[in-house]
Amino acid sequence: MRIQNIELQTDIYKILDKLLVDIKDSGLNYFSLGYKESGDYLMVQCPYHKFGQERHPSAEFRKEDGYFYCFNCKNAHPLPSVISDLLSTNGRAWLLENFEGTSVSERDTNFGLLEKENIQKTYIDPSILEKYKNKHPYMYKRKLTDEIIDKFNVGYDPDFTIEKNGKILHFEECVTFPVRDEFGNILFIARRAINQKLFHYPEGADKPLYGLYEIYREISTGKEINTIYVCESIINALTLWSWGKYAIALNGTGSKEQIEMLKKTPFRELILGLDSDSAGRKGTEKIKNALISHKIISELEVPEGKDVNDLTEEEFLKLKLKDDFWL
Question: How much is the pTM?
């Protein structure tokens, strides 16, 4: 099984059996009820509240990768972090010491989204980004910060014209957004006109989860990310990043392929922040219905007719979440 970027020649049962023995040998009393089967998960007592002495298990380990989540206190951690917390040791080192395993490089880590042989092979040369490296006041008007502009390589194209359906679309000035796959390869460059409401995506381009690569880079530095926001537009997702939130953009209301990608991501909770209009509401219901048995789903109560970028940060922080949904 793969846990973060460690490939282990074992399964979750053997890992938990060994962990229970080491906890008992340390004189601790966590997981005294052991673990109980529950579909794709193993239910356990949560060690993060009530001193680990619950009468009934309220937490779970995902069998696939050992990811931990508690339904009561909302603690969520990858398995190495749980081991570190319980045994006061390095959880990653403990796994490698007790089970045969190998580390996988960040480049080879795909988090179960796609098989590498099926990944698109034609990418845009990153050197083209130098052409669009200048910044424009419009970026700051849309609430982006220098840090986020640089992290996502947001750029400026002073003159962009394209023919579509026999018509010439003259964007003039536009902002450019490199769209990457989860490995960081540039699939295409999306554009948003500055002086008119025009968007451009290459004809027939597959839309990945914009921002997923950047989130995985954060995880590779050791950060624990359990919750992400799901938005329609790139601008909305980048606005949330500017406000310290992790977000991805669908560039729409969610295709079947994107929903499958979301299902396989390691994040336990998704907060849906699609636009508050008819299309956004339909997209929210579609995603919720498809993922409700796989993720904890919350819905951001965006004011009618608005999207995240229409709000100030203060207004955003005051937004309420609709009740969590899960089966």
Answer: 0.66
